[in-house]
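Researcher: First entry.
Model:
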Amino acid sequence: MKLIYLVNKGLNLLRRDGFFMVKSFIPLSILVVFVSTPTFADVIWFSNNNRLDGHVVRRSPTDTNFKLLNGSNVTVENPDITRTDAEPYVVYLLKRGEHYLKNYGEPERALSSFQEALRLKPNDPYIQERIDWVLLSQRIQRCKDGIEEAREKAREGNFQESINIFEGLLPTAPRDELARTIKREVAETYAQLAYKFFDHSYFIGAEQMLRKSEEYNPNSPMLHFVLGRIYHINGDFPEADREYTLAMELAPDIPKLSVYLADVRKELRFIQSAPIDQ
């Protein structure tokens, strides 16, 4: 009905503007091409069960012009075709969406195809599931990209910027394992910032950062390492040994941890072997 209305409207406009009817055929045919929507999809089969998925654009006595899932067109010689199967256009849109996902890694184009399919077949649970999956995948990827950006900031020594990114990601983390990763790494970053503050004699700030680190992850290896360094520098060797040991159990590859732990235990052995004043 929509197409007939547009054609009739086009005729009336042409008559009103004084054009001859015979001259209206070309613009009207162009109009029809642009407003009509394919209502079917096709699978072209060849020998050995090879196939092309898409839809037929034009078929002549000698060849067939075929639009593929990726949007490109190919022309196939008719004798090479064994048969052509027609499918609903929704099926074509779903195939195209999967094609963009699996072969091109383009979730935006896949999402567009799935959403077009849903408009043609509203409330279809499978189509809605594919849309939800793409949206979730996009959220997961954005979260992973944010985590990597925060890590890079921390590697550059921009600890506060890294913390801001981590804490911005945490409320919207789409999966529990990503939330755990963020908590673990923001705890490490707070501990690194605490050590930086301590190294610059900003002791109140260092204490605040260590409390934040413990709040996110009380088992943070970097938290125990930094506490060990603070006790070590202040000469509290038993507490330094305890914190270094905890850090070693959690992450033995922390740079210089084994060296500091060995130094503390050397100090403890020296203290234990020293003669007691009479």
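Researcher: Second entry.
Model:
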Amino acid sequence: MEELANKTCIPCKGGVPPLPVPERKALLAKLAQGWELTHDQNHLFKSFKFNEFKTPMRYVIEIGRLAEEQGHHPELTVGWGHLEVELWTHKISSLVESDFILAAKIDRLMQESKSPMQKITPCLWFDNQAEEAVEFYTSIFKNSKVTGLTRYGEAGAEVSGRPRGSVATVSFQLEGQDFVALNGGPVFTFSPALSLMVNCQTQKEIDTIWQRLSEGGKTEQCGWLRDKYGVSWQIVPTIMDELFQTKDYPQSERVWKAMIKMVKLDIETLKRASMEK
């Protein structure tokens, strides 16, 4: 993402050929998760979710400033709890590199705006696999990186029983969210009582993350899995809130009945259940 975000958009005056489809897909792979090509593959789209109205409105203003700076302007749709961004080059009704550059800049804007606001950081207690686990997790999620590492000194080694000089903690980010992994020994283990929920926009995203996280682990009911380190995850589609948070009780009940029969969640099956009479 950083490679694209560091570039500058070039205003299109028309007469520029659209990017070939393989190049569009290659640039899409460099963006943070959530961006999609539309059905005709001529537009780039992403939906951002929030839990109130003020934040998406603030981002509309910030994205507007960014668009003016770059001379490249997205279509924005905003409402309570959501902001949709759609990009394409209007002069040619298709995509050029600048559309992907602006998408990467928007992602960076979102990430930088969120980072100072995070007050609660999950700490995952491992026996001695913190580095290995972090390498595994950051290979799965986009916009992910190691941000710091500490080692046990003499005092820490004495208290923990870990070797002096060995890795104590690894700080890292997954999709811009801060985490800490701790090598604390076998005193405590993970439990499904605490799980990490991954909100996925598409079935492809669900399938990919499910397959990677479940390698060497165990899949469970209703979109839950335990990875090979024992950490529990819920891999869920973003549409779940819409399907469940409805005043139509029979619809909600149909979705519940469909979901409890599943291991990995299937978006189309859940949608069909919601529409049945």
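Model: Note on the second entry: The longest strand covers residues 167-174.
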